[in-house]
Amino acid sequence: MQHILDELEARRAGARLGGGEKRIEAQHAKGKLSARERIDLLLDEGSFEEYDMFVEHRCVDFGMADNRVPGDGVVTGWGTINGRLVYVFSKDFTVFGGSLSGAHASKIVKIQDMALKNGAPVIGIFDAGGARIQEGVESLAGYADIFMRNILASGVVPQISVIMGPCAGGDVYSPAMTDFIFMVRDTSYMYVTGPDVVKTVTNEVVTHEELGGARVHAQKSGVVDGAFANDVEALAQIRRLIDFLPGSNRAKPPTRPSFDDPERLDYTLDSLVPTNPNQPYDMKELIETVADEGDFFEIGANFGKNILIGFGRIDGEPVGFVANQPMTLAGVLDIDASRKAARFVRFCDCFNIPIVTFVDVPGFLPGTRQEYGGLIKHGAKLLFAYGEATVPKVTVITRKAYGGAYDVMSSKHLRGDVNYAWPTAEIAVMGPKGAVEIIFRGEMDDPEKIAQRTKEYQDRFANPFVAAARGYLDDVIMPHGTRRRIARALKTLRSKQLQNPWKKHDNIPL
Amino acid sequence: MFSKILIANRGEIACRIIKTARRLGVKTVVVYSDADADSLAVQMADEAVHIGPSPAAQSYLVADKIVAACRQTGAEAVHPGFGFLSEKEAFAQRLLDEKIVFIGPNPPAIAAMGDKIESKRTAAAAGVSTVPGYLGEIADIAEAVRIAEEIGFPVMIKASAGGGGKGIRVAWNQAEVEEGFPLVQNEARNSFGDDRTFIEKFIVNPRHIEIQVLGDKHGNLIHLNERECSIQRRNQKVIEEAPSPLLDPETRAKMGAQALALARAVGYDSAGTVEFVASGVDKSFYFLEMNTRLQVEHPVTELITGIDLVEQMIRVAAGERLALTQADIGINGWAMEARLYAEDPYRNFLPSIGRLRRFSTPREGAHDGFSVRVDTGVRAGDEISMFYDPMIAKLCAHGPTRSAAIAGMGRALEETVVDGIGHNVGFIAAVMDERRFQSGDITTGYIKEQFPGGFVGMPASPTQRALIAAVTAFAEALLSARAEKTSDRLAPPRAKSCRDYVATIERVQVPVKVCLNEAGADLTIDGRNHRLETDWRPGAMLVTGRMDGAPFGLELKRRPLAYYVRHRGFAGEVMMLAARAATLYARLPERAPADTAKQVISPMPGLVVSMEVAVGQDVKAGQTICVIEAMKMQNILRAERDGKVKTLSARAGDSVAADQVLVEFA
May I ask the CATH architecture of the domain A2-242? Predict the structure, then answer.
């Protein structure tokens, strides 16, 4: 009997080595951890249970029959993050370069199915060379099977992708359909076609890093939601992210005790909005002051910086923050900001995470670049996302809420549940200067009159009370009490019930 | 006594004057500019009068507006504080004409001491020893060079109307005179509207020691001993103390006598300060200038003498006789003052203005072995504005001995938190912990000599390292234990009494075992047992408590995988990893940081005064690239190495942000 038990241990030990010590060392030399080391850091110590450790590929062409490694280039299974269930797969670059075979794909599909059934997030770690070419269409079928699960799981369980090495061709489309993608700087890249093909087709010479490095995707393309310094940091941050998310759309987000008093007042907020209406201030300070313990998990920090999105907690309960950032482009809504925030609002709505919105928006960004880029439809995404969201929505206007952007930013008219404004708020169709130039076009030649008109307009609209008088705001609040008021509002919304009309699905302007 | 006085100043000094006035039962009026509308001083004063836009030249420096404010409020007297109108003879005269009392000396005394050249002649005539130099006005660079050579290098080029460290430059050779002279003239013109400039001998190993004098309108004059203000950067005082570690009773008496002789010679009748430069070698001293006003650093004198100088100024201005004689003046213990500035010591002390997100100081009054005094005019949430001096606060520690005062200041700095802008808290703490400073062997060149490459932070001592490891591991354990208390778990968390971490402090890995308990934690750090007591909870930036029984304060911020820690002169990120993560982390090769030497980056927000290079130009290391003006100071940015200019991203007249790339090299 003992030798049978020993045999299992020996087989396990063999499988755990993946492509062997040498390749693991090569992996380290590149600044990357091995597939199993990554899982080990991601999950609670000792919680990982591996499935399909002994799966091997079924390919017999091109000499593959004699070249089999147990596990077949991907490590899959489940474990816990702070005690909560997650499913995980981690591509093993040391085995066939992590390339995808039919068997490899079915391992991933298995845990996707389990996650969907049991209501738990799926975390995929990517470090692989694409399709297993020797397998031909079986490999492509495998990809499609994974894609199909990504699609079905979307909005049902959180799906998170971490790119920790190469990720190209067919491999990119599974992450692309997940909720969040993160990358590691310098050691990972992501593109549909690599530099060689680019050179052949367009004659453009470009490096991996320039084509699809973490900086490119985190700043320019907006494809990824964050870039981290190294594997260790990335995995620690994914743990932090998971702490905010429910297992599925059937569950409430997890709660935990807070060290921070929900009634805490902060008088520094009374001077956050500068006296000069054109002077920027850092909206992140408001988020960090309002959130429990100043803890804000920002998403997409380097893309569309004129809007801030991310997770925090109020009195131990997760919320999604969306806030215009006056520090960049005066907090204007443009294509990037609208896309970024719209997707985040929809994520929160899928997973029952209340949305707290801070508004200081001068409008939509004018110009040919924006219009040619389709600002109309991209801006509509955010409008659509806020309007359709049925989770609790609490909004605070801190300063400007001009024009259509006022409507968009979780206004009362889009079923905002509790809408507050600071006394510094200005809610109007546009800024006083622009408004006067239109209304009093005839008096433009008389600077004195125009100054007088501007002042009139300013006195009339550069405050929250016109909106408050119509009930579009529920209250005008003191800045120092913002955390307390939001915490109280969220408590009233705990059992909020709201349903959209039945539909197969909506038709958001994609 | 007056029933109501007006304070023609702002910030901490306005607040400080209000406190004394209130104690004396005198009502106060402050004036304020746009930028100060919501200031602490305005809040504290009984009345406040708006006097115009933020630039001082349009508000605090406009005598008409001050006079009008007095008329409007019925204030009988004006305390000018320091800076602004405090040493303007015309202002004092104007008040006299308007029958408003100036809480300061009579106009002729201000006039006699106001001009640096004139004051030296007066001092020499009164028998006060003076520094060799050329007292005439200097026409151009060529003359400046000739005079400098006559006096002998090094020389100091100074604006006649200068003060507050502005408009002063030291030149060690001809080239530096050629470069410095026009800059001083420019600064003098911009800051004081007067570009007269003079040159004098620069004394090597000099110490700045000054005598506080106090007179009344009845001919009584006393001195309140000395202050030493040798710790300066860019000729501006940062740390002051009283008494001076250099002076013996005999020298003190001699210096006091000379100061009184000068004060008497000009008929001085208020609080004033006679500044000397003293040689650390032989205690010889020379007259520098007399400041006919309250000094920034007056609190140290108040702490060792127990005399409220502002009260005395108000009383003598009201015509009272000095109730004190020289025999009443003693020295009780030792006092240190540190000026907390919104500046970045890591960037050559350049101003770092902006919003003060968090600001807290230790409580005033008696602590264990020392007492604390805090003079400030700002609160958390206030703006350190570009329009005025970027001082945040003056922190004073008073103890029975110099070493007690130094230790007290060190502790007080541990419990001082400034966030949102750059500040010099860590730098001052580093000075307090530095042996040469502790020995008292200081000169005005101390900062340059002791921190030659600029301040780069201090390495952690072994005790500090244990403290830092303990606090960061405690924080991490607290957060981890809480994270495990989440809802939606598969099974309840297993109670973990202890956790193992590895803290990386200055690249050294320190293994820490931390076992949380009710009062803090028991720890094993590098094999040694420690006990941490603290009630810190996440969200607070200041951790206070006791480590192995010794009290401490430490600033802590969460970062990814790490904590930012500031404790005394140490500041840096401490990586905090679970033991197993540390093992894996160690396997990853280190990555080189991005190369920024190919760029010239604006070290602060400011205005580009001139761009001295063009695209395509070859530049040598050390060559001037551009001049940036901020806070009325011109700062020369130089090339770090040879190169060819590839792109220029700013032109003269542009406003630039901190860290903005100005020039890129090919």
Answer: Alpha-Beta Complex (3.90)
